[in-house]
Amino acid sequence: MALAIRLARGGAKKRPYYRIVVADSRAARDGRFLEKIGTYNPLLAKDSPERVTLDTDRAKHWLSVGAQPSDRVARFLDAAGVVTRAAKNNPNKGKPGEKAIERAEAKAAKKAELEAALAAPAAEEAPAAEEAAVEEAPAAEAAVEETAAAEEAPAAEETAQA
């Protein structure tokens, strides 16, 4: 007979309350059990001492006899200091799924296209502005020369008349 230390559900609908029991692993979840060694009320606050009550002496006895705790009960036993539980590591749990990756790639491509579209007119305007400045410079120099020549012409005429 394989023994299991597990939770047996009780309580009303939407109001769960669990007994921590030692039972034959083949028995129904809420069915026949050998001994009740504690309770678990998930509706209470996590720091509440009544959330998990556990008879640690009986838990140690059943573990020494060969009972295997369920994952949740193993957490309770670890918190009580009865057994040490190796922390599980699932590095793939935090990775996004295929659809999320596709959406992120599409969003990045769209953003890159938008930035390229915004950069292209700015790049076209910059050389045009430089060309306009270059074109304006000779025109400005020519205008300065014309005004200087216009100022010199009357002065030259005055000197010629004199």
Descriptive report:
The protein is an alpha+beta fold and 162 residues long. It has three helices and five strands. It has helices spanning 56-65, 71-80, 98-161; strands spanning 3-12, 15-24, 35-40, 52-54, 68-69. The protein has a five-stranded mixed beta sheet. The model has no long low-confidence stretch (mean pLDDT 81).
Number of DSSP helical runs = 3
Going across the major beta sheet, what is the strand order? 4-3-2-1-5
- In angstroms, what separates the terminal alpha carbons? 136 Å
SSE series: EEEEHEHH
Helix/strand layout:
Elements: E1 3-12, E2 15-24, E3 35-40, E4 52-54, H1 56-65, E5 68-69, H2 71-80, H3 98-161
Parallel strand pairs: 1-5
Antiparallel strand pairs: 1-2, 2-3, 3-4
Summarize the structure.
Helices cover 52% and strands 19% of the residues.
Characteristic key phrases:
single chain; 162 residues; alpha+beta; 5-stranded mixed β-sheet; 3 helices; 19% strand
